[in-house]
C-alpha cells in the first residue's frame, strides 16, 4: 500500500541497517530534521544517479542530533530501516520545503545460502588482506549480511544500486560473488606486478638455466 514519505535524495546508496552521519545545511532539510524531531517521522534517501532520482531508496530514522550550529546547520546520526520504491515523486511535500513521494515498501527475504556465505567470507578476507584492511576483518560479525559489507567491496554506485534492488539475501550473495570472482584476480595480479617492480634496481640472486 502506498504512503507518503519525505525524501532526501543524495549522491550515494544507503543500505538497510547502515548508520549514516549527515551534515544538514540547506533550509529545506533543516525543516525536515525539525519535523523528524517534532512529529517522529522518518524519511527516505533515494540515490541521485545519472542526473535523476532513483526509483528505489532506503528509509532512515533519525537517531540523534549530534550538534546544532549558530547558523542553524546540524550534524545528525541516522540509520537505514528498509527499502522502498517511489511510485510518485513530488518536488515539495504539501506545505513543506523538502521533497516527498508516494512509496511502497519492498519485502525482503533475508535468508541466504550458508555455503555461499562461507565462500564470500573467504573472498572478503583475501580482498581485505590485499588492500591492507585487516582491521575490517575484526569488525566482521559471523552472521553479517551483504548490506553490512557492501560499501567495502570496491563496487560502483551502479552495482550498489543493484544490491539495493535485489529482494533476497541469496540474490545479493550471487551479485557479490560474481563481483569478487572478477575483482580478486585483477587485484592479485596487480600485487604481483608491484612486487616485481620493487625488485627492479636491486641485485638479484638468480640461478641460470642449464643448457
UniProtKB/TrEMBL annotation:
Ranges for domain Lon N-terminal: 4-182
SUPFAM superfamilies: PUA domain-like (SSF88697)
InterPro entries in the record: Lon_prtase_N, Lon_prtase_N_sf, PUA-like_sf
Superkingdom field: Bacteria
Protein name (record): LON peptidase substrate-binding domain-containing protein
Annotated source species: Hymenobacter aerilatus
Amino acid at each position: 500500500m502506498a504512503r507518503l514519505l519525505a525524501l532526501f535524495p543524495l549522491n550515494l546508496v544507503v543500505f538497510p541497517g547502515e548508520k549514516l552521519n549527515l551534515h544538514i545545511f540547506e533550509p529545506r532539510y533543516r525543516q525536515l530534521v525539525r519535523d523528524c524531531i517534532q512529529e517522529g517521522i522518518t524519511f527516505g534517501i533515494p540515490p541521485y544517479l545519472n542526473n535523476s532520482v532513483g526509483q528505489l531508496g532506503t528509509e532512515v530514522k533519525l537517531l540523534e542530533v549530534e550538534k546544532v550550529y549558530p547558523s542553524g546547520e546540524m550534524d545528525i546520526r541516522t540509520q537505514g530501516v528498509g527499502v522502498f520504491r517511489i511510485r510518485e515523486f513530488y518536488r515539495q511535500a504539501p506545505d513543506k520545503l523538502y521533497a516527498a513521494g508516494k512509496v511502497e515498501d519492498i519485502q525482503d527475504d533475508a535468508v541466504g545460502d550458508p555455503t555461499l556465505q562461507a565462500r564470500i567470507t573467504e573472498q572478503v578476507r583475501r580482498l581485505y588482506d590485499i588492500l591492507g584492511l585487516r582491521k575490517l576483518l575484526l569488525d566482521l560479525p559471523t552472521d553479517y549480511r551483504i548490506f553490512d559489507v557492501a560499501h567495502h567491496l570496491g563496487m560502483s554506485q551502479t552495482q550498489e544500486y543493484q544490491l539495493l534492488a535485489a529482494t533476497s539475501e541469496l540474490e545479493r550473495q550471487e551479485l557479490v560473488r560474481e563481483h569478487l570472482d572478477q575483482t580478486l584476480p585483477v587485484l592479485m595480479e596487480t600485487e604481483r606486478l608491484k612486487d616485481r617492480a620493487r625488485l627492479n634496481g636491486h641485485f638479484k640472486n638468480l640461478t641460470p638455466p642449464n643448457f
